[in-house]
Amino acid sequence: MQLFQYQVLYQFTYDVFKAIGCSENDAATATEVLLSADLRGIDSHGVARLSGYIRLWQAGRINATPSIRIIHETPSTAVIDGDAGLGLIVAPFAMQVAIDKAKKVGTGWVSVQNSNHFGIAGYHAMMALNEDMIGMAMTNASALVAPTFSVEKMLGTNPIAVAIPAGNEPPFVADFATTTAANGKLEILQRKKANAPTGWVQDQEGNASTDANILKKNGALLPLGSDREHGSHKGYALGSIVDIFSAVLSGASYGPWAPPFPAYIPMPENMPGKGLGHFFGAMRIDAFRPATDFKQHMDNWITRFRAAKPAEGCEKVLIPGDPEREIQQSRMVEGIPLLTTIVEDLKNTGSLFDIKGL
Amino acid sequence: MQLFQYQVLYQFTYDVFKAIGCSENDAATATEVLLSADLRGIDSHGVARLSGYIRLWQAGRINATPSIRIIHETPSTAVIDGDAGLGLIVAPFAMQVAIDKAKKVGTGWVSVQNSNHFGIAGYHAMMALNEDMIGMAMTNASALVAPTFSVEKMLGTNPIAVAIPAGNEPPFVADFATTTAANGKLEILQRKKANAPTGWVQDQEGNASTDANILKKNGALLPLGSDREHGSHKGYALGSIVDIFSAVLSGASYGPWAPPFPAYIPMPENMPGKGLGHFFGAMRIDAFRPATDFKQHMDNWITRFRAAKPAEGCEKVLIPGDPEREIQQSRMVEGIPLLTTIVEDLKNTGSLFDIKGL
Asked: Cβ contact (<8 Å) for A181 and B305?
């Protein structure tokens, strides 16, 4: 494990995005979005994925100079064609359109086709906070999850993020995969050669499994709820809603046809739409009630929930967003820890473009 | 167990709502919404609750002749004051406002204060289907659920419903509590004197429990995910989002202050808002892409998911809404089964107003 200052990783990542042809603005945006994951402690979605994005660009699946455009709109909605651009760039563009529409008619809702992985959903949802809006972001993703009663991988981990402003309290920021555990958590166990808890994955027959490598053996991640008795049909429904809002509504590729992140996996045959899909929403608080009233009540909500009696052995009740904010505060000062294998991988990526600095 | 034809229960329920002073239109709406739960097999939310609504009316907590009105609006949003009316009447009114706004600007979003329990969320979401819209409905509810790391009941079972039209296939209709198991499921086990599976409830110290009566002993329902290791923080976040959209956005009473459904429980002190809150959304499909295209792709989505390989011992993969639709088809023909205790309870309610017919 090595510690890197944010600025060091920023410069390196920016240089790499510039090297594949991104404009200065786009490289800055992509870097900020990507590293927001490292800052918030969602290490699986941060700079560790940089080489993956570059391999997609090498494979011709990512367009570094996309012409992102609105292909259909109403006062409160839009569909955007990402032109196969980096999701890290397409998503903030689309979220801004949602925010602009909310300014005019109260809310804005944008579905996106022809995009790629967009980093952490939370970043995009949080763009609404400074505008006194509630922000939402979701995306479909490569199929790793079996629906309830099935052994076939049909859905991605399809995250949902919702960011809600408060007053004196920090904002409420939920950002979660619609699976029991995100794939990144499984990857951590693989590195440690540890078992997964039951309820995270199943084997190729649909039996409970604790093998952290089971996805490579035709196993699957499980929807939030784990099994039918514990509500996996609800997690399956949530993941499906994300898939439909992101991809069926926009004309992206959905379900098992969602394009894979690893560039070595061939694109699915007979894709029913273009690229990955996302869905964004922005709701102006004062389209419902005065923002000051709302924020005062959010402070009250947050304070009351923080004061809820803890269970035995638990320190305190957390508000969604608390852990990530604490990690961010610490990493901005202490630096961002990266595994040696990730550092090597980054150096290799840099060397493709003669970029040093790590 | 006794079987009743839908029309018989309809007439009885309609007469009771008329007897407390509802207009003919309102009585018809309330009856249709309430019985939609029985038809769809969600027995805990149907006619079995009629006496509960009447007790709330007797306690002066429900206004049978509400003046429901929009108190704030923008082109795509509204806040509605339900004037303490039956949620069964307030909710369809509010959903219609969302639909009307969607007709004009693409989407409509309505937050409701000063309401009461609204039956099943699915009914309201499904109102959008005939308009070629996606419908959403959620509500907060009396606190029965402990947040992750807590033993205090802070949230209701706060359901989310999303209804999405398809073409030749039946619509996708998800309608689920944001808990591992709905309270109704626990009540069924109580009647059977059976234990609950682990992961549904916890005791007053926050330990896992299988006691179906644990809520009466300071226990709590668990958020979807059951425990931290299985993602209960995600269920807690979902339930919180429902609470905030329904109640903080509208000015209703939120979290542990949500008004209780049983009329014998005193109203919480220092309520921060008015009554229960709901949240509704309607998105016109053709605000995103032509409805015929979308429906064709939804048919493809549904067909593909139905064809997903089943797990060993499982018959087939279901689409959200399948089980409820099958029950509805059967109950419209065979009748609706009611427990003898429920029938007695209904007869007692009828006798208050000299209404027979069961």
From this structure: no
List pLDDT tens digits, range A190-218: 988 999 999 999 999 999 999 999 999 99
User: Which architecture, in CATH terms, is A181-219?
Assistant: 2-Layer Sandwich (3.30)
**CATH no., domain B181-221:** 3.30.60.50
Domain ranges, ordered by start, for chain B: 181-221
Residue B320: closest C-alpha in chain A: A237
Residue with tokens 């600095």: A357
Angle (CA) A95-A153-A37 rounded to 5° is 35
Which pLDDT value is given to residue A108? 98
By mean pLDDT, which of A266-270, B92-96, B303-307 is the weakest? A266-270
Mean pLDDT of B153-159: 98
d(CA A55, CA A296): 47
Phi, psi of A328 (to 5 degrees): -60, -45
CB distance A149–B311 less than 8 Å? yes
pLDDT for the residue B122: 98
Q: By three-state DSSP, how is residue A113 classified? A: strand
Query: Cα separation of B139 and B127, whole Å?
Result: 16
Mutate to test the interface with A, among B110, B240, B296, B319 (most CBs of A within 10 A): B240
Contact: A240, B174; criterion CB under 8 Å: yes
Q: How far is CA A191 from the centre of its chain?
A: 22
